[in-house]
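Work Package 3 (structural annotation) set out to generate three-dimensional models for the target panel prioritized at the project kickoff. During this period the team completed the workflow that converts sequence records into discrete structure tokens, so that structures can be stored uniformly alongside our sequence database. As a representative example, we reproduce one entry of 486 residues exactly as it appears in the project archive.
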Amino acid sequence: MTAATLPPASAPQAATAPAAPAAWPVRLLLDNDDDHAVHRAAYQWADPTRGRITADPTPHTTSPAYLALDVLRAMGRDGFSREGAERMSTDPAWRAVTCWTLATSVHEAIVLRAHRLTVERLRRLAAWRADTGIRLTLLAHAPERDDEQRLREHLTAVGLVDVVTARGPAAVLDEIGPAATGRRFGPPPHDHVYPLPTVPRSSVAAFRADCWRRQNETDFAHTDAQYRAGYSAARTWLARTLPHQSSPAGGTEPANGSPEPTAWSLQEMEALRFFLARLASSSPSPQHTVARVRGAQAGFLSRSVLLNVPDDLTSCAGPGITTVPITPRIVHSITLRLPNPLRAAAVAALLFTGTAKSLLSMTQIASVDDAGTTVAIDRDSRTNIGEPPGPRHMYAVPPRARSLLRAAVEFRRRTPRTAAGHGLFANCFGTTPRFEALIADAGLPIPALVHPHSEDDWHTVARCWHLHTPAPPAPDALPRLVELRP
């Protein structure tokens, strides 16, 4: 070891920010004996799920683009290796590396064959480290004296001067550390969800009772659990969002002295759309969605608010109807097969919004909030020019898809000549062959593409009114159904 001291493994990292100095010095590990145990230890140490990757540069090439693809492969994103897959040039490939690093938990990287890295490749690695604060380790195998000297000169040329060195197999193995534990490879297991039977097309007033009469005891228990979840979510959301408006003023006074219902404002309607999208975005089937929405309607009525949705929800499109839950297995498929952040986010957005690609193509960079939790699409500003704006189309981003959206936004922002009003998914849904290739690369069924929906998504046509009546004494728990089954 040199006189420089490596920071302990438990030391905190500095906050990542573009052009910020890295918190860790570069580690240069010199395996003079080319010990196979060192190579094996570097691979076994890697665990992308815990933010640690080992990149093995493709031999017989000095292309910076190939090195970026090697880093993406180390992250588990190797869809570019499939026949007919999209190719990325040098700049987009390195932007993808940076964006995936910032959007995920990758914070340490080992690069093998370091003594063969060119100045341009080291410059790209230095920029990646400066943009993300990643802890970079370079591992050289059996370098000659000239190779080591040339590598140090190249490191100095690209500004990597804070270098600490470990030499010899024993010291190198000690610096690499123990092998990762746990399951590191292969897709996650499938989720197991209890399938619900076809639910009745009853209104909110009769829905729960009709389910009780038509379903067996087990099916009703699962349906009622979804109904109660929607009921509780609605009451909680109303209490937080409209704490003082259970009996709002401002309605017109008709002859009989009872004020007329008051429609919700533009801001309230946008908030409602987001609530309904969030309620249904994780729903595993349309039947689960219908039960949740009917429960939410009951919860709204208990606060003197009338929520009106389409009568036959299963014939509509939108969250919970033409969507696919973003499970760990879905995320694994997307990230494995679509290394381009824009393509990955586009497919994920089709899955969790369930909307038509013509509407989704209107998504602007500024439509996604900083945390990646909300997508707000303003279609009226493009289709109804000159008319007052209406409520935006609001979609909730599931937690597992947020890193995909953040990576796509970061990718667009780092693209030259890009503004916040530019399209986030530009050129993703354009020509039919390109779009079909994108879907084929993802290898996932997307119900929104085959569902016969010509109207707006169901949650965007929902309407609410304040009833101006005393709220009924609804208990926290719904009453039991006591009538006899037929």
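The CA atoms of residues 164 and 362 lie 49 Å apart.
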